[in-house]
Task: structure prediction
Amino acid sequence: LRGRGGAGFPTGLKWEFTAKAQSDQKYIVCNADEGEPGTFKDRLIMEGDPHTVIEAMIIAGYAVGATKGYIYIRGEYYNSVENLRKAIKDAYEYGFLGENILGSGFNFDLTVRLGAGAYVCGEETALLESIEGKAGRPRLKPPYPPQVGLFGKPTVINNVETLANVPQIILNGAEWFRSIGTPNSPGTKVFCLAGDVNRRGMVELPIGVTVREVLYGFGGGIKGGRELKMVQTGGLAGTFIRPDKLDTPLDYDSMKNYGVSLGSGVILAIDDTHCAVDIALNVMEFFRHESCGKCTPCREGTKVACDILERMTRFQATEEDLKYLEQIAYVTADASFCGLGQSINVPLLSLINNFRDEFIAHVKDKTCAVGLCKEVKPKKATVK
Result:
């Protein structure tokens, strides 16, 4: 089982690190802070089957020797929160949580913690800081959570979808699980299909299906019969690809070889009515808003990138600005403190590299291929 939160790190290895750590207290944390735009898989799992997540956390606790768990969830997920609290209460009443669970001698307690909406708290150490009552800002790594995590104790942090796989693996066995998906990425993945497709929504498919199969098999093709211009995979920090990459298998290793990320499982289809420069501005505005401000490269880099892109959409930028924008993307990725700043170059550079002609047209010819961007001319003030 590989982590379904984005990185695809082997779950068993993460558990093993924590199990081997020597401590009087260990924790299991469920990362349910689903802040990625277009992603809603964790929400539906928690609303539809919260007991699966609870069961998985109990199993994880037993495996690594942890006796306390936290579910860190978006405060905006009202129904999910209520469902989880009700499910936890029921689990205590039936003896699945608390002291001496089912006479086993194993103790495990579970608590729900609400996030305040910060995107950066999806980063595991920022999440831990938030649970501890501090500002949700990332920690310096190493040490890593399996050694020094919540309240300084060894901690397992798993995503909702990752945990949802655990009870089925325990019930049906490893061979059953490995019969689905690919040899290096077994199992299924929940994909959230969004954008300009005829049928948007969530679908669970074996890992290894292609982008094309998801778009046209489940999504029913591009809305209105328009031409597909690009697809973004893996969430807002993911890569934008052209239609000639639609046959890329959706598994961790294949996508890495193509320079693409599976990420949270979002597949965003974009038709030919959209401008690549305008999309880049929208992406960077999101990261500028969600930057925690802890490190200068991310805090200032996103601001400057937004300023350049905004001037591009108004035909006020130059070719030197485009070069500077690319430099900012590289520097921000290399020098930022956490994964948020380190990943913003991925969508930005993939847009520039795949649609460089559009960026050049905005700075050199002062034109937008789809007519979306308009020149803004300042009006003279008049006094009556």
User: Anything to note?
Assistant: The chain has a mean pLDDT of 94. Strands lie at 27-32, 68-74, 109-115, 155-159, 188-195, 201-206, 228-233, 240-241, 266-271. The chain has three domains: 2-174, 184-271, 276-365.
